């Protein structure tokens, strides 16, 4: 089972201006910016209780974020749930009939191992599973 | 400022089948179902740590959820942040230039007073502010 809603990911065109806007909206500054080169994204994070808000700007037209914005405009791109053991959870969900977008966990932002579930398996929602690798 | 990410709202066509699917996905059953007649929706809630997952099914074609699904299909409809004092927060955001969708808080699901911010004010994200009225 999942432990908790870890973050929501919002696709934005310009991280700098979105950071300013979300700082005003949430009343709190972003606490870090991180590039995930394998995904061609630049990300920033806001603490909003236990769950975070992650903003994502594409750094290349091949990025999934660039394609998402081209198709649907800016907006919520994914939601992420933290799990204890991502391999076990991927196996459990696959056996339940969920379609996973990667067969092995990959390295995401924020020192996490991540895996995505196809939106067709989850009522149109792109769901990320993530396992913290800090400890 | 906002206190925490309180829930994410997902628009679904059929609450019963979506409940079954999200039970499998999250590994936890929904803990309540609630109708919000003023909004023409039937909702269900899942506990996922501090932040909840709310599924919403339209009970009438006039419902915002019905219109959302017709336009974009099922998917994430809104994200909600808890605030201490919704009137003060609405005033603060309006003075910062955010466009609010209601001028007075209205009664939402889960014993909350709620207000929505226009997606154009928040990089394509429909943001709800909510204040708990339990205590």
Structural topology:
The structure is a homodimer of 135-residue chains.
Chain A: E1 4-11, H1 15-26, E2 32-36, E3 41-48, E4 51-58, H2 64-72, E5 75-82, H3 86-95, E6 106-108, E7 112-117, E8 127-132
Parallel strand pairs in A: 1-4, 5-8
Antiparallel strand pairs in A: 1-5, 2-3, 3-4, 6-7, 7-8
The H/E string of chain A reads EHEEEHEHEEE
- Unreliable stretches covering 5 or more consecutive residues of chain A: none
As laid out across the biggest beta sheet of chain A, the strand order is 2-3-4-1-5-8-7-6
- Helical/strand content category of chain A: alpha+beta
Mean pLDDT across all amino acids of chain A: 96
Describe this structure in words.
- The structure is a homodimer of 135-residue chains.
- Chain A has 135 residues and is of the alpha+beta class.
- The first copy, chain A, is 23% helix and 39% strand.
- Chain A contains three helices and eight strands.
- Chain A has an eight-stranded mixed sheet with strand order 2-3-4-1-5-8-7-6.
- The A-B interface holds A 1-5, 8, 10-13, 18, 21-22, 24-28, 48-53, 55, 72-76, 79, 81-82, 92-93, 96, 98, 117, 119, 121-125, 127 and B 1-5, 8, 10-13, 18, 21-22, 24-28, 48-53, 55, 72-76, 79, 81-82, 92-93, 96, 98, 117, 119, 121-125, 127.
């Amino acid at each position: 089972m999942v432990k908790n809603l870890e973050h929501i990911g919002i696709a934005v065109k310009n991280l700098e201006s979105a950071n300013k806007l979300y700082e005003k909206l949430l009343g709190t500054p972003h606490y870090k910016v991180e590039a995930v080169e394998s995904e061609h994204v630049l990300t920033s994070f806001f603490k909003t209780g236990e769950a975070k808000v992650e903003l994502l700007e594409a750094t290349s037209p091949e990025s999934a974020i660039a394609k998402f914005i081209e198709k649907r405009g800016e907006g919520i791109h994914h939601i992420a749930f933290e799990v204890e053991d991502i391999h076990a959870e991927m196996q459990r969900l696959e056996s339940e009939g969920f379609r996973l977008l990667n067969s092995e966990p990959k390295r995401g932002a924020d020192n996490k191992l991540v895996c995505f579930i196809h939106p067709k398996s989850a009522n149109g929602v792109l769901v990320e599973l993530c396992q913290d690798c800090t400890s």
